[in-house]
């Protein structure tokens, strides 16, 4: 399963031949339209503070918003899961980890709805997949189901280009779009705190002694490359290190009024892990925590964190 893109947006699984993107995103105001959720700008509400903590096993986000108008403002707020698609992986039939998503508003639990759509070529094919009893959320399970289809149903999927035919195998072509959303009231002239916590899907690729190449795509420090090479090339043949990529989409924060006034980022890692991030300067680095702080932050890019981990013993 590949997760390709989202600070309220979000998201692996172990890929053998390619990086699987894991992403999440900032909360964003939306409208409910006939074709699904549509994002909109709410200029009256500012994001005064965002506190984001990312590890491979948990994402925690705390936001402080203020409605500067003289009236309470009620709008639909969405936390979209970045679109994801099937790819050749060590597959899992478990439900996606992001389904443990929890949210609170000023300490009160939010019960979000979930909006699920399968898209191919710009067209919504959700109804067709449901008609054929193809699972939606777990695309690895969907892959397993379509392998058992009869000749007529297989040909229908091939004709509609919803799958690639690879010998006897059928590979899904559609992309999953998932949104958590709820109705949120922002009280007039008052701050409100919204928090999220969830387990991200983690994914990446194997880095093994037999086919290791220098990791050039992870923005690792120059001092780390030789240390990583030594770690991997000295592993026993049946052991592999892991490159995990976690993506968090920050640009959705621009749907609110003005920049993020105060943005704090903490990356949590194991002492034996290496971390790479492109274009970020950290105020403090320890063996387990990396910290950054920005003011009046208008994200023009999304955040990508790379973890290189030795095998667990």
Distance between the termini: 26 Å
- How big is the Rg? 21 Å
Which structural category do the helix and sheet elements fall into?
mainly beta
Strand content: over 45%
Helix content: 10-25%
Which sequence of SSEs, written as H and E, runs from N to C? EEEEEEEEEEEEEHHHEEEEEHEEEEEE
Number of strands: 24
Largest sheet: 8 strands, mixed
The rough form would be described as: flat
- Strands in their spatial order, largest beta sheet: 11-10-17-8-7-20-23-22
Instruction: Count the DSSP helices.
Output: 4
Let me know the average pLDDT. Answer: 82
Catalogue the unreliable spans: 1-23
Provide a quick synopsis of the model:
With 313 residues, the chain is mainly β.
Layout of helices and strands, plus pairs?
Blueprint lengths: L1 E2 L4 E3 L3 E2 L7 E4 L1 E6 L2 E4 L5 E10 L4 E9 L5 E13 L16 E4 L2 E3 L2 E8 L2 E2 L1 H6 L7 H8 L4 H9 L3 E4 L2 E4 L2 E12 L4 E8 L5 E4 L16 H10 L7 E9 L10 E9 L5 E3 L7 E2 L3 E9 L5 E7 L4
Parallel strand pairs: 3-18, 4-19, 7-20
Antiparallel strand pairs: 1-9, 2-4, 5-6, 5-9, 7-8, 8-17, 9-16, 10-11, 10-17, 12-13, 12-16, 14-15, 18-19, 19-24, 20-23, 21-24, 22-23
